[in-house]
Amino acid sequence: MLRSAVHLKTTVLIYLLSLDVCSISVLHNDFKINGCSDTEKESVCGSDGEEIWHADFIQQMGVNTLPDFADALRFPGFYESSIAAQEACKQNLAVCIKAYKSPPEEMDPPETSIYPKNDVQLGVENSLVCHVTGFFPPPVNISWTKNNVVVTEGESLSRYRPRNDGTFHIFSSVDIVPEERDIYSCTVNHRALQGQAQTKIWGKLHQHYSTDKCIQSGFTLALLGAATGIFFFIKAAATHYLTNCKCNIINADFE
């Protein structure tokens, strides 16, 4: 369900496009989002939930965000139409805020997860990805630390991407060369969290190392326990045997 005019800060247009490829009808969900607020503006085009173009209002140009291996697409006139849409959005925003007497803005808190981009090997370059999803409205603030020290080098941030329920998600990543005891954290701040930052910690190598040590220690203790048990078992058996022998000898002498 799309965000309605309760916030009145985002105008959304979603339409369906049917493509005929090799005589097979394929249905795609294409969308264009124009959003504005008192301080921010956004214009994004995409398909099937993935962004393929956005307007960069700072550089005053349109940006194709498809990966390098994808066929290049051109969006003639999209940036100009985005500017016009922003003007309309500003006007509608002012009218609606007045009509609805500045209603409180609905907010959804983010959900955060952290994971490595590739299989982890000590001393081998990799990236950690922090996925923040399900939040409304943008923006969110994302920061990284390594062993409790703030990290900015090698950090990258994707564009805000819409979800089908009207919320957004975003990816942040940081380049790493993992070592055995390294611990990384991704911290997310959003208005819906009301000052309670959301932090996810990644230190699997450290955890695995500790787990292995625990397993080794447990195995060693198990062996010691087994050896101790055998020792006491033999001792008890020997004691029982000697006692019976003494009893038999005494009985023999007595007879």
What labels would you give this structure?
single chain, Class II Histocompatibility Antigen, M Beta Chain, Chain B, domain 1, Immunoglobulin-like, 5-stranded antiparallel beta sheet, 2 helices, disordered C terminus
List the helices and strands and how they pair.
Blueprint: E1 10-21, E2 24-36, E3 41-47, E4 50-56, E5 61-64, H1 78-99, E6 111-116, E7 126-135, E8 141-146, E9 149-151, E10 155-157, E11 161-162, E12 168-176, E13 184-189, E14 198-202, H2 204-254
Antiparallel strand pairs: 1-2, 2-3, 3-4, 4-5, 6-7, 7-12, 8-9, 8-13, 10-12, 11-12, 13-14
Membrane topology: Single-pass type I membrane protein
Domain Ig-like: 110-202
Pfam family, one: C1-set
Write a structural description.
The protein is globular and about 55 Å long. A 5-stranded antiparallel beta sheet has the order 1-2-3-4-5. It starts with 9 loop residues before the first strand and ends with a helix. It has helices at residues 78-99, 204-254, and strands at residues 10-21, 24-36, 41-47, 50-56, 61-64, 111-116, 126-135, 141-146, 149-151, 155-157, 161-162, 168-176, 184-189, 198-202. The longest helix has 51 residues, at 204-254. A hairpin with a 2-residue loop joins strand 3 (41-47) and strand 4. It is of the alpha+beta class and 255 residues long. It has 2 helices and 14 strands. The chain folds into 3 domains: 10-99, Roll (Class II Histocompatibility Antigen, M Beta Chain, Chain B, domain 1); 111-202, Immunoglobulin-like (Sandwich), CATH 2.60.40.10; 208-255. The protein is 29% helix and 36% strand. Residues 1-24 form the signal peptide. It is a single-pass type I membrane protein.
